[in-house]
Amino acid sequence: MAALAPLPPLPPQFKSLQHHLRTAQEHDKRDPVVAYYCRLYAMQTGMKIDSKTPECRKFLSKLMDQLEALKKQLGDNEAITQEIVGCAHVESYALKMFLYADNEDRAGRFHKNMIKSFYTASLLIDVLTVFGELTDENMKHRKYARWKATYIHNCLKNGETPQAGPVGMDEESNEDEEAGTSPLPTHPPQRSSSAYDPSNMPSSSYTGIHIPPGAHAPANTPAEVPHSTGVTGSTIQPTTQNIPVVDPALFSTMSIGDVRLTPEDFARAQKYCKYAGSALQYEDVSTAVQNLQKALKLLTTGRE
User: Fold this and answer.
1) pLDDT digits (tens, 9 = 90+) for 50-77
2) Helical pair 263-281 and 83-106, crossing angle rounded to 10 deg
């Protein structure tokens, strides 16, 4: 991909967008579609923040130039030309990051890369707002990922061992659900309460949210896995899983030729198949079967 013209200095009014723009730069080569939508999010949000002062107008103008250049380069990519495909792409990528970090967390492997993966996942869920309102599930994932990133960051900074897996969090957290207003602090504040103290956290799942490993099945984790994770082949044991029964009705549906499928239907079916394939990478058979059933039902009946 051709290099983009650099942006002018970020106006102070757009400080909340700096992490989204940095994520865009980091993905220019890794995943240009993600990079494009990160910039589109920054553009739309920046317009709402301040589109009148000269420095902001200049910055937004240059950002628009970058978006137009990217759109020309990616013009034949369905993830750019069709919003539903783009939404599925960004959501899948965000969940890859989330699941990688969540699996590392549950295994007790705490490192900077997993912290960044948690936080990047939360930023990409911010980006999903360019396609419309977030689902309740995505809002919960964003809040959990952002909190986990901050919690583990603070623990490591203070020489403490974080508690692995879903743990309680301070319900009175000042985290702002508005996009980009709660960046991972470079210098996290000193703890003034027990909010980040693992010894004072309840063992129950965080605010009742149960996030099983592999639940959302993102494939091909984009985050760079550390070379030495402490896991060897001998430590992985097969587990017995409850595999859902395949709905017999799926085998007696109308023929494919009788169904009129829209591009949106194909995009949704493709997303289900991606999630199923990803679930198998984590040996999550139940999630794989459920997503394949959804895809099969959609393709054979035109309904979900």
Assistant:
1) 999 999 999 999 999 999 999 999 988 9
2) 20
